[in-house]
Amino acid sequence: MGLTRPPALEWRRLPVLGLSVVALLAGLTGALVLLGVPMPAGALPLAATHGVLMTLGFLGTLIALERAVAASARVDRALASQPPATPDGG
User: Fold this and answer.
1) How many Cα atoms occupy the beta-carbon half-sphere of 42 within 13 Å?
2) How far apart are CA 14 and CA 65, in angstroms?
3) How many CB atoms lie within 10 A of CB 63?
């Protein structure tokens, strides 16, 4: 049984993934503020938006990325099953 090669990394998805990581870190910082862990004063507004950051910022972004990858795979499979077009239309 041969090993399969993992798919190539899609570089155009990395900025969205980076924003997801930023939302995760901001949401976790907000959670720590809610738990009473001492943080710099700039972290206090994150406590009020903890739920929104975690739900929409982090999970929403990752779910959207997952759906984009799945849709891309479906399109690739559909295109692979089509016979190649010939210039003369035949």
Assistant:
1) 1
2) 10
3) 11
| Domain boundaries of the chain, sorted by first residue | 15-80
For 70, other C-beta atoms within 10 Å of its C-beta total 10
**Could you report the per-residue pLDDT of 15-60, keeping only the tens digit for each?**
888 888 888 888 888 888 888 888 887 777 878 888 888 888 888 8
Question: Which H or E element spans position 33?
Answer: helix 14-34
CA–CA gap between residue 30 and residue 79 (Å, rounded): 45
Residue 68 φ then ψ, to 5°: -65, -40
Give the number of C-alpha atoms closer than 13 A to the C-alpha of residue 24, restricted to the C-beta side: 11
**What contacts 30, CB < 8 A, 6 or more positions away?**
43, 46, 47, 48, 49, 50, 53
